[in-house]
Amino acid sequence: MPDIVSREVRSRMMSGIRGKDTKPEVVLRKALHRRGFRYKLHDRNLPGRPDLVLPARHAVVLVNGCFWHAHEGCPYFKLPATRPEFWRDKLMANRERDRRNLSLLQDAGWRVAVVWECATRKDFDSTVDQLEGWLRGTSQRVDVAWLQAQG
Question: pLDDT digits over 62-117, tens only?
Fold first, then answer.
């Protein structure tokens, strides 16, 4: 299926998509702030520059977009029909980088939460509740996704 816009226009559109301060990230951090959590944003000294860093809890929160991080089985992720080889390579490289950064963070002793965009869209209050419970607890890792509630 051919794209409805030129390659140049599509490139300009895609380059305008931000990697930080995305809507899911902003609404999640505002909700956590209202619940009393304080954090740093995008710490350059940590692998992958996590979206939220809570030093007092030795925890980081990564807010992943379902498309850009190729969230398997998610209704918000679909491999584009235009230039599928390019997109498959790009998105799989994103996944591999995510795995590497997650491993580096955990090896450095950080607790890691991965919150998927779908969780912030479908059941926001439960997502924040689950994340709050994890932050107040001691477990090392949590993934928060809408799919988990469905399965």
Answer: 999 999 999 999 999 999 888 899 999 999 999 999 999 999 999 999 999 999 99
Q: Which of 76, 75, 59, 58 is nearest to 67 (CA)?
A: 76
Residue type, 75: P
CB 88 within 8 A of CB 80: no
For 18-150, CATH gives 3.40.960.10
Q: Rounded to an integer, what is the distance from CA 90 to the centroid of its chain?
A: 16
pTM: 0.85
Using DSSP's 3-state secondary structure scheme, residue 144 falls into: strand
User: Each residue of 36-58: b (16+ CB within 10 Å) or e?
Assistant: ebebeeebeebbbbbbbbbeebe
Tokens encoding 124: 């926001």
